[in-house]
Amino acid sequence: MNPITFLTLVAGLVLLVIGAEFLVKGASKIAAILQISPLIIGLTIVAYGTSAPEMSVSIMSTYSNQGDIAVGNVVGSNICNILLVLGMSSVVAPLLVTKQIIRSDVPIMIGVSLLLLMFGLDGQISRVDGIILFVGAALYTLSLIYQSSKQGAEQDEFTEEYGFSGEVTSALWLKNIVFVIGGSILLVLGSRFLVKSAVEIATSFGVSELLIGLTIVAFGTSLPELATSVVASFRGETDIAVGNVLGSNIFNILAVLGVAGALSPTGITVAKSIIHFDLLVAIAVALVCLPIFYSGKRIDRWEGLLFLFYYLAYNGYLILNAVDSQILPTYKAIVLYVVIPLTIIGVIVAAILEKQAENKRKGI
Question: How many Cβ atoms are within 10 Å of 363's Cβ, its own excluded?
Answer without folding.
Answer: 5
